[in-house]
Amino acid sequence: MTGPSTRLDPRTNAVRRDIADIRLAELVFAPHYAAPLAMIVEGETILRAESSPGSDTVAILKTDEIFEVLEFSGGNAWGISPAHGLVGYLDAGRLTSLAS
Fold first, then answer.
1. Does the structure show a pLDDT above 80 at 99?
2. Taking the CA of residue 33 as centre, how many other CA atoms within 13 Å lie in the half-sphere pointing to its CB?
3. For 3, which DSSP code?
4. N or C: the chain end with fewer CB closer than 10 Å?
5. Residue 21 clears pLDDT 60, i.e. is over it
6. CATH code for the structural domain at 36-97
7. Alpha-carbon distance 95 to 98, whole Å?
8. What are the residues whose beta carbons fall under 8 Å from the beta carbon of 85, sequence distance 6 or more?
9. Would you place residue 2 in the very low, low, confident or very high pLDDT band (cuts 50, 70, 90)?
10. CA–CA separation, 47 and 3 (whole Å)
11. Which helix or strand (DSSP H or E) is residue 59 part of?
């Protein structure tokens, strides 16, 4: 990246203060970058704005939708739903590998 970071909407771009999607590396500086891991949603799942279970619902992901995970932490997965174009957290136990 050259020059200052571009300000991106974190609701639609997987970027936080500590980590960003590697696909955004040309636009933003982050201490860490992650490559997305495409996984399959098992059963209807709530995509949340924050990691806490009671946080606002961003979207409802349907069975067999793809979710691109950038971080696993505390039983949650953080990433982006390509079908909705939205970033958020969901229960990591609701995801399965594409290879399964």
1. no
2. 11
3. S
4. C
5. yes
6. 2.30.30.40
7. 9
8. 12
9. low
10. 33
11. strand 57-61
